[in-house]
Structure formats: structure tokens, C-alpha cells
């Protein structure tokens, strides 16, 4: 568990870079719960990743960052690191998988990051090992870095400030850094709240591992839900996820599409597949009743994919 004082300290470190995002009620009457949206898609880069990247770089200090920074990311953490690197006038490189969406790649380059595209298998190896031959800057792990998780955990503090009587929180699960960061704060301050990860059916290693009682590999199929999912649970995150989370809720691609449409039509919210997955789970009743907060983790979706989903394709 990330210490609460580290999460509280991160609030001040990222105050000048990350927004304190709103918590809004989703106007639906037939969900069996009061659904609230934590709108991290409104961050300057369209994703919560700004928080963790900013806190990790602030903690590292200028001397450690002198040779620049790099990360491995499908797009959102890359933007978080690149945005903060540009703010600090540092060079930035990003290792991305070959299926990373065009919208996110363009954003990385717009922010001044150098994109290094590799196969999914090679990219996943960087996620696991934290190393990439030829890059010698400061590596910021998108998931397992405690400072990244502390930055992510500030979302949990904000949720409790805005909705002290929250009953459940549903959090997209990619590698676990977001869910475990938020859960670290909530387990201390609101121990009776139900805390769920959410995955998509095409890549749900946490749900499979929880069923098996140990980390297992699963089949991974790329889809428009590119911000979450992998082929296995990172070993460093297994203990934390099992300790902090009440389970993993798995949604279908169709449920994610429906949630994206509903968010746009009723909430006037643009969410990417990962960001909408939490809403899909809540709409399906998977998180139970009461006041349910869905973390809309990001809104970086390719315009063609969004257009197709909104038109029902």
C-alpha cells in the first residue's frame, strides 16, 4: 500500500500541473445506482497520467533528470511524461506498442516526445523489466513506480472530499497503478467503500488471476480499448491488487461502446474505451447499488473510432 502521507504530499507537488477534476452525477435513472463521474479526461493531456508523471518527476529532482526521461506507454502515460518534460525543458522518449492509436502518437509528438514504436511483445518486455537498450535517461515506470501511484492516489482524496459517503469506486485497470493508488487512499480514509478494478473481455488478466489465486497469462486481443489490458498481471502489482481491491469487473466491447455513446449523448463527455469501461460496469450493475463513482480515466480516442461508435457501427 502507498502510504497516505505520500499521497497527501503529492497533492502539493502536482498542484501547478494537474487539474482538480470535477465529480459529476451521470443523468441516468435506470442503472440501479447513483452513478458519478470522476472526469480525468479533462486533464490538460486528456488523462489522469499527468498526476503520476508529475509527482514522479518532482520527486526525482533535476539532477536525476539531467539526461532526460523516457517511459513505455500505449499513449496516455507517454503524454503525461512528455507534457511534464516540456514544462521542465527536458528531452523525452517514449516506447510504444505497434497498435498505439494515431491520436495518442500525434499528441506525444506534439508535446515534443520522441516515439519509438516496437512490437507489443517487445513493449511488454519494457513494462516488465523497466529497461530499453539505447535509452539512458531517467525511466519512469507507468505502473509500478510508487511515486506514480502516489500521484494517482490524489484522485481518491478528491473523490472523498466531493462525495464523503461514496459506496463504491470503479477504476480502469491497465497495470494497476491507478487502481492501487486510489485504493491506497480509500482503504485508510473510507475502509467500508467497495473498490473494483474494471477490465475488458479481450484483455482481463487480473480477473483471471484472482480466480486462479495466482498470476496467470491470458490471451490478449488489441481493440479500440487500448488504455487498459495486458497479457498478465505485473508481478510487482499482484500483491497490492489482491490486497487493496474487491475484485475485477469485466465488460464486453459492446458494453464499452454503449457507455461511450451514453456518456457523449447524456453527459456530454468524450471518453476513450478505457475511460468508459468503468461506466459500462456500473451501468450493468456489477458494482452494486448506492453511490458509485466511475473514474473516467481518459478521453483520448481516435476520431474515426469515436465517429463509428457514435453512429452505431
How does this model look, in words?
It is built from twelve helices and ten strands. The mean pLDDT is 92. The chain has helices at residues 4-13, 49-60, 76-87, 102-110, 120-129, 146-162, 177-189, 205-212, 235-244, 253-266, 273-283, 303-310; strands at residues 23-25, 34-39, 69-72, 92-97, 114-118, 138-139, 168-172, 194-200, 248-251, 291-296. With 313 residues, it is α/β, with parallel strands linked by helices. The longest helix is centred in the middle third of the chain and has 17 residues, at 146-162. Strands 1-2-10-7-8-9 form a six-stranded mixed beta sheet, sandwiched between helices. Strands 5-4-3-6 form a four-stranded parallel beta sheet, with helices on both faces. It starts with a helix and ends with a helix. The chain folds into two domains: 4-47 and 146-310, 3-Layer(aba) Sandwich (Rossmann fold), CATH 3.40.50; 50-139, 3-Layer(aba) Sandwich (Rossmann fold), CATH 3.40.50.1100.
Strand content: 15-25%
In terms of structural class, how would the helical and strand content be classed? alpha/beta
| Helical run tally | 12
Mean of residue pLDDT?
92
Write the CATH fold name of the largest domain: Rossmann fold
Instruction: Indicate the low-confidence ranges by residue numbers.
Output: none
Radius of gyration: 18 Å
Amino acid at each position: 500500500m502507498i502510504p497516505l502521507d505520500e499521497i497527501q504530499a503529492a497533492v502539493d507537488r502536482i498542484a501547478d500541473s494537474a487539474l482538480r477534476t470535477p465529480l459529476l452525477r451521470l443523468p441516468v435513472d435506470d442503472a440501479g445506482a447513483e452513478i458519478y463521474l470522476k472526469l480525468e479526461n479533462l486533464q490538460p493531456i486528456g488523462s489522469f497520467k499527468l498526476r503520476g508523471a508529475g509527482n514522479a518527476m518532482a520527486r526525482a529532482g533535476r539532477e536525476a533528470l539531467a539526461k532526460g526521461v523516457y517511459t513505455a506507454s500505449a499513449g496516455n502515460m507517454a503524454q503525461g511524461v512528455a507534457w511534464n518534460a516540456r514544462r521542465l525543458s527536458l528531452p523525452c522518449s517514449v516506447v510504444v506498442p505497434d497498435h498505439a492509436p494515431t491520436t495518442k502518437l500525434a499528441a506525444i509528438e506534439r508535446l515534443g516526445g520522441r516515439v519509438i514504436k516496437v512490437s507489443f511483445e517487445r513493449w511488454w518486455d519494457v513494462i516488465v523489466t523497466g529497461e530499453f537498450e539505447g535509452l539512458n535517461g531517467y525511466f519512469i515506470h507507468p505502473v509500478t513506480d510508487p511515486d506514480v501511484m502516489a500521484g494517482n492516489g490524489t484522485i481518491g482524496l478528491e473523490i472523498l472530499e466531493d462525495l464523503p459517503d461514496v459506496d463504491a469506486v470503479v477504476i480502469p485497470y491497465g497495470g494497476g497503478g491507478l487502481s492501487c493508488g486510489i485504493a491506497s487512499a480509500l482503504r485508510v480514509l473510507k475502509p467500508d467503500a467497495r473498490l473494483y478494478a474494471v477490465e475488458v473481455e479481450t484483455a482481463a488478466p487480473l480477473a483471471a488471476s484472482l480466480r486462479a489465486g495466482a498470476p496467470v497469462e491470458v490471451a490478449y486481443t488489441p481493440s479500440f480499448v487500448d488504455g487498459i489490458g495486458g497479457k498478465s498481471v505485473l508481478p510487482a502489482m499482484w500483491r497490492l491488487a489482491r490486497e487493496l481491491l474487491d475484485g475485477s469487473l469485466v465488460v464486453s466491447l459492446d458494453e464499452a461502446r454503449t457507455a461511450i455513446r451514453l456518456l457523449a449523448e447524456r453527459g456530454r463527455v468524450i471518453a476513450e474505451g478505457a475511460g468508459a469501461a468503468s461506466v459500462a460496469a456500473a451501468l450493468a450493475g456489477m458494482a452494486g447499488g448506492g453511490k458509485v463513482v466511475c473514474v473516467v480515466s481518459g478521453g483520448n480516442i481516435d476520431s474515426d473510432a469515436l465517429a463509428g461508435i457514435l453512429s452505431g457501427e
